[in-house]
């Protein structure tokens, strides 16, 4: 899929940007967090909003695998107000973001141009659909169970008391922030009408009632569920939409149980190949379907072995070699592999190995995220197709 495909698909779905309501950096953050929950990120990872004012408007979103100087320049030239990337710019600690440092230079450039920067990294690797689902699908592999399953993030049950005439507005705001989705259904909620009461004290500025007097109001009790990772976004949306100065709401945490392994979140995917083929042909398919790099695609194993079951792990995946060896797969596709781990694996296990460029295995996710944002927010999106793979020359 190319950026033109994304543009065409999104234009057909949204009818163009002219009719889009005002969208903010906060709205984009909420949409990304709902699709790729921050709770799924590895403990060492640094995901989320890197720079930018959550209240700033966003009329166009650019996406790339990582924010280099060239990517930042292109996002600015494209007229984007937000840049969404996979690799965090500030993953490792820094003690300065001065404009004469490499990372500081990029941040100053973006801030001066009014471009917010957001990163979804290992949370996007583990989410469904996420980076690994995109990689598997492109290669013709069914995106089944993850290589490293994570406990499913539980849901919050929300209970909010709202004046009856405002309940629809509050519910809609909570839906937009990620609440109210159960399986294949969205906008799920329960409502019970009743009567609430309160007495505003001296410092209060009540929407309804008089300071010092007990007020009784016809209210609705609104209930719905939301992913725990969306809690902050739902709270913000609820408070913005609720007419009361101090809205009353409860949040009860629930644990997820009994999840289908093929719906489980986690890094990597294991599944059947759509068409069994010799390993040499499968390596050729990987090279054909992933973005081209100087690194290319390498295969280790019997060229004539028939490949039926495949494991994939986008990005650096040599830590999964031992796990893959226990899954009965015919091939494992990942990136950044080293000589000795591959050599030792081939001696001890019975599967073939495909090594791709790190950038190539993850870049296709940008199109997935672009379409998701366009569908969710109705804002034009554009994938910056600059190849940021660091390897620029190859010889054989």
UniProtKB/TrEMBL annotation:
Task: Write out the coiled-coil annotation as residue ranges.
Answer: none
| Quaternary assembly | Homohexamer.
Q: Which UniProt keywords apply?
A: Metal-binding
> Which InterPro entries does the record associate with it?
DUF34/NIF3, DUF34/NIF3_bac, DUF34/NIF3_sf, N-reg_PII/ATP_PRibTrfase_C
Question: Do you know which Gene3D superfamilies this protein is assigned to?
Answer: 3.30.70.120, NIF3 (NGG1p interacting factor 3)-like (3.40.1390.30)
Its GO CC terms?
cytoplasm
Record-annotated residues binding a divalent metal cation? 86-87, 125, 358, 362
Q: Which Pfam families match?
A: DUF34_NIF3
Spell out the family assignment given in the record's similarity comment: Belongs to the GTP cyclohydrolase I type 2/NIF3 family.
Q: What is the lineage of its organism?
A: Bacteria, Bacillati, Actinomycetota, Actinomycetes, Mycobacteriales
Q: What is this protein called?
A: GTP cyclohydrolase 1 type 2 homolog
User: Superkingdom, according to UniProt?
Assistant: Bacteria
Record flagged with keyword Metal-binding: yes
* Gene Ontology terms for molecular function: metal ion binding
SUPFAM superfamilies from the entry?
NIF3 (NGG1p interacting factor 3)-like
């Amino acid at each position: 899929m190319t950026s033109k495909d994304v543009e065409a698909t999104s234009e057909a779905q949204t009818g163009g940007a002219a009719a889009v309501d005002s969208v903010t950096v906060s709205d984009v953050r909420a949409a990304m967090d709902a699709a790729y929950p921050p709770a799924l990120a590895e403990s060492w990872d640094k995901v989320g909003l890197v720079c930018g004012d959550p209240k700033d408007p966003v009329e166009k979103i650019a996406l790339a695998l990582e924010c280099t100087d060239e990517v930042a320049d292109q996002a600015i030239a494209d007229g984007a107000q937000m840049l969404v990337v996979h690799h965090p710019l500030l993953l490792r600690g820094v003690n300065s973001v001065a404009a004469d440092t490499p990372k500081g230079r990029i941040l100053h450039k973006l801030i001066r141009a009014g471009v917010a920067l957001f990163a979804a990294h290992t949370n996007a690797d583990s989410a469904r659909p996420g980076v690994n689902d995109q990689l598997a699908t492109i290669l013709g592999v069914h995106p089944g169970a993850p290589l490293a399953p994570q406990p499913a993030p539980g849901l919050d049950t929300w209970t909010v008391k709202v004046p009856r005439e405002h309940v629809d507005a509050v519910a809609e705001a909570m839906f937009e922030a990620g609440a109210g989705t159960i399986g294949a259904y969205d906008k799920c909620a329960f409502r019970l009408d009743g009567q609430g009461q309160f007495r505003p004290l001296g410092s209060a500025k009540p929407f309804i009632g008089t300071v010092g007097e007990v007020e009784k109001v016809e209210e609705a009790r609104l209930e719905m569920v939301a992913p725990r990772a969306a809690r902050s976004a739902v709270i913000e949306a609820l408070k913005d939409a609720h007419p009361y100065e101090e809205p009353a709401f409860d949040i009860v945490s629930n644990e997820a149980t009994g999840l289908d392994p093929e719906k489980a979140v986690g890094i990597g995917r294991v599944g059947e190949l759509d068409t069994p083929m010799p390993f040499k042909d499968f390596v050729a398919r990987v090279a054909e379907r992933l973005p081209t790099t100087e690194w290319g695609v390498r295969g280790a194993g019997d060229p004539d072995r028939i490949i039926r079951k495949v494991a994939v792990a986008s990005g650096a995946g040599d830590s999964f070699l031992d796990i893959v060896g226990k899954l009965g797969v015919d091939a494992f596709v990942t990136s950044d592999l080293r000589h000795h781990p591959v050599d030792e694996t081939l001696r001890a296990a019975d599967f073939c190995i495909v090594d791709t460029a790190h950038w190539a295995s993850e870049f296709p996710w940008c199109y997935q995220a672009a379409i998701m944002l366009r569908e969710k927010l109705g804002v034009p999106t554009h994938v910056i197709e600059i190849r940021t793979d660091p390897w620029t020359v190859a010889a054989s």
